[in-house]
What does this fold into?
Amino acid sequence: MAKVNAGILATGHSYPKGILTNADLEKMVETSDEWITSRTGIKQRRKAAPGEYTSLFAVQAAREAIERARIDPSEIDLLICATVTPDQILPSTGCLVQAELGANNAAAFDIAAACSGFLYGLSMANGLIRTGQARCALVIGAEVLTKYVDYTDRSTCVIFGDGAGAAILGPVDGERGILASRIKSDGRFAEHLYAPGGGTRLGSTAETIARGEHYFKMKGNELFKVAVRSMTDISREVLEQAGKSADEVDLFIPHQANQRITDAVANKLEVDSSRIYSNISMHGNTSSASIPIALDECVEAGRVKEGDLILMASFGGGVTWGGVLVRW
Ligand code: ACO
It folds into this structure.
C-alpha cells in the first residue's frame, strides 16, 4: 500500500476591514513611518472593530477553505484552531467555530503555541491522518491580537495585526503532502513575549487591568536573536528529514514577524528573494494566522503550482518554533 501523508487540499483566509497605518500610529505614540518600515517592514496592519472577535474571522477563513475543497462540513473529523486570543476562556474557540460551521462530526480544540500554532496544527493533523485517526482535518490559525496590544507602548503596538487563515487536509499518496514536520518549544524564554494577567495566577481584576497586565509584553531584541536561530535550524532539520536541500525549495513562507527576521533566515538558508513570500507590509505580525494567510495569498496569486516544494517555518511566544515541508 502507498505510504500516506496529509496533503493540503484547500486554503482560505479572512481579516477585518479596519486598517491601522503607520501614519495612524504616528498620531498615537512617538514613532515614525520611517522607523517602523526600516525596523520591521510593516506599513499597515488589520485591526478588528470593537464588536469583532477571533472566531468570526476563523469561520470566514474556514468557510472559504471548505468551499474550495468541495466538502461538506460534516466530513470534517478533526478541527484544530490555533490561537492565543480565544473568544473566551471556555469553551475552546475550536468548539465555537465547529458549531458555527456545523462540523458536528469533528473533535475540536485549540492550540496555544503563539505564532507557531498553525504549524503545530499541521503537524498534529499530519500525525493523526498518517495513523488513520483522522481523514479530513480543518486547521485554522486565527487571532485578534490588537485587543491585547497596549497602544501606549510603541515597542509592541506597531507590530501586531488581526486575521485568520485555514487549511483543509486529507490523505494523499506519500510523494505529496507534508513530507516532514518538526515542532519545538523552550519555556525558559516564556517572558520574552507574554501577557501575565487574565489567567488563574493574577486573574483579571480592576487592579490587573489598571496595571495593564493583560497586555502583551515583549523583549523584541531577545526574540529577534532566538527567532533567527531557531527558524534557520528547524528549516534545516525538516529539509534533512525529507532528504531535500534548500536549493530545491520553490517557495519559502516564513512566519511574518519582521522583514529583517525573514531576510536573515533566508540569507542563512541561502534562499534568494524570488523564492520568499512576504506580506508583512500589509498585515504586520498576525501570530498563528500569518502563515495560513500568506499560504492562501500565494495560492490565490498562482504562486503555488502542483509539485512545488514549500517550506514553512515559524517562531513565537512560549517560545515555540516549527517547520513543515510540503510537496504541493
Ligand atoms: N518607534 C520609534 N522608536 C522605537 C519604537 C517605535 N515604534 N520601538 C522602539 N523604539 C526605540 C527603542 O525605545 C530604542 O530606543 P533607545 O535606543 O533610545 O533605547 C530603539 O528604538 C531601539 O529599540 P530596539 O528594541 O533595540 O529595536 P529593534 O531594532 O530590536 O526593533 C523590534 C524592535 C522591531 C520589536 C524587533 O526587535 C523585532 O521585530 N523583534 C522580534 C519581535 C517578534 O518577532 N515578536 C513576535 C514574536 S511572534 C509571536 O509569538 C506573536
